[in-house]
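I am writing to request your help with a piece of structural work I have in hand. I set the record out below, with my sincere thanks for your time.
___
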Amino acid sequence: MIHGIHHTAISTGDIERALRFYRDLIGFTEDWSSTWPVGTETVDKIVGLKDSSARVVMLKLGNAHIELFQYATPRPKPGETNRPVCDHGITHLCLQVTDIDAEYERLKAGGMIFHCPPQVAGKGFRATYGRDPDGNVVELLEVKDGAGPLVIEFSTPNSEP
């Protein structure tokens, strides 16, 4: 029986920079951290790599966990920092917030780059996308009291919003 999602993992080339973003700016707290050296067979089997070594930090905020990895070996390829969200793979991490305008301004002042200011995204919902320091997309989503299920409503140029 599957119970739900436990965590999302992000590989980064600079774990300290990622911690400054997710822990210090966003507000996650560090749950635990660890490292493993080259030759740790069990980890190599799980991750499907040979001679891996890394530092890992598990962060927690509410019911969500983010696991940050900085691999030393094998040498990782850097990600594209402006990967379009239409490309295959995980497209974004969504954080539910209250007062999206205040969070947008706080995070923007902290250096987060956003695609746009918060937008109406359906009845009772406002949202915006921004990027973490590695280019991963982080969505801010505000859900107003009484909002129904999240159904994104878009208007076309010739229709009412």
Summary: The mean pLDDT is 90. Residues 15-26 form the longest helix (12 residues). The beta strands are 8-11, 29-36, 53-61, 64-73, 93-97, 113-114, 119-122, 125-131, 137-143.
